[in-house]
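Database export, one record per block. Field names are fixed; values are copied verbatim from the stored entry.
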Amino acid sequence: MALFEISDIDKKLSEKATKLEASASDNSFELSYQIRCKASELLTKLIGRNLSNRFVEFCTAGEFSMHELLTYLLEQSGPADVYISTWTLKEEPARILYALKQSGAIRNLYFVFDYRIRTLDAKHFDFIEKFATGYVLTKCHAKVMVIDGERLKASVVSSANMSNNPRIECGYIMGNEHSMNFHKQWIMDVINGKKVY
């Protein structure tokens, strides 16, 4: 006797697809860019562009730094609340985040960390713990940055952790408040002990 019928699965998937379709909204972007470059060139190619309502896909040839991208985005956004999920965090980005918070470029700073950071990067975690507005340790492999600023509301979803990484990395930047709110909400849900699914 079969454990399930294919027709039942098709019906369930169809019901879910209908719900997803019904909840979809038009969040079209004015313009999108696709950039393949060395990491240092990514920011050079973005400088001067207003990222509001823009979608930027990127693939960098290693040496990519999320904290450099964050610094650049904060220059465009003005003072911002920042939300980060990452698998790991190293010393240089930890110190830069501290400096950005001290300068007022970051108003509030929230983290979702993989629970292993406490043992794998204990020194850096102890440092971040002292000035983070809020954080949680959980099973996390997502690499997301959210910038909720005065002039720019954006989210970055990338393969890169908060570290100096000499590998090929790729991701996208969405200068869209709808996307920013989605990622901000699930990060805060995790921090507040709620399920995100």
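Remark 1: The chain is about 40% helix and 30% strand.
Remark 2: The two ends are 32 Å apart (CA to CA).
End of record.
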